[in-house]
C-alpha cells in the first residue's frame, strides 16, 4: 500500500501488504484484504504501520465493515 503525501502528490511511504485487493478506511484504521495471505490486514493510518492481521477464507477480494452498535 502506497501512502501519498497530498501536498506534493508523491509517495511518502510504502506499507507492505501481499496482493492487496480492496481497502476500506474507518477513522484511523485501514482494512486491506490480502488475497495471497488469506487475511485482512489492519493498518494504523497515523503511525503508518500494520497493527493486526485477521485470517479469512481463501482469496478475499472485497471487504464490508459494519459497525457494532452494542
Tags for this model:
mainly beta
Can you put this structure into words, describing what you see?
The chain has no helices and six strands. 0% of the residues lie in helices and 50% in strands. The model has no long low-confidence stretch (mean pLDDT 92). It has a four-stranded antiparallel sheet with strand order 3-4-5-6, with no helix packed on it. It has a two-stranded antiparallel ribbon with strand order 1-2. A hairpin with a 4-residue loop joins strand 5 (39-44) and strand 6 (49-55). The protein has strands spanning 2-5, 10-14, 20-26, 29-34, 39-44, 49-55. With 70 residues, it is mainly beta.
Termini separation comes to 32 Å
Specify the structural class: mainly beta
Number of helices: 0
Number-wise, the strands total 6
Which regions contain 5 or more consecutive residues with pLDDT less than 50?
A: none
Q: Largest sheet, order of strands side by side?
A: 3-4-5-6
Strand content: over 45%
- SSE sequence, one letter per element: EEEEEE
Oligomeric form of this entry? single chain
C-alpha-based Rg, rounded: 13 Å
- The helical percent reads under 10%
Mean pLDDT: 92
For the biggest sheet, the summary is:
4 strands, antiparallel
Shape: globular
Amino acid at each position: 500500500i502506497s501512502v501519498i503525501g497530498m501536498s506534493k502528490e508523491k509517495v511518502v511511504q510504502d506499507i507492505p501488504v501481499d496482493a492487496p485487493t480492496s481497502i476500506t478506511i474507518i477513522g484511523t484504521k485501514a482494512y486491506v484484504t490480502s488475497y495471497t495471505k488469506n487475511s485482512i490486514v489492519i493498518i494504523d493510518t497515523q503511525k503508518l504501520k500494520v497493527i493486526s492481521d485477521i485470517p479469512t477464507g481463501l482469496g478475499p477480494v472485497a471487504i464490508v465493515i459494519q459497525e457494532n452498535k452494542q
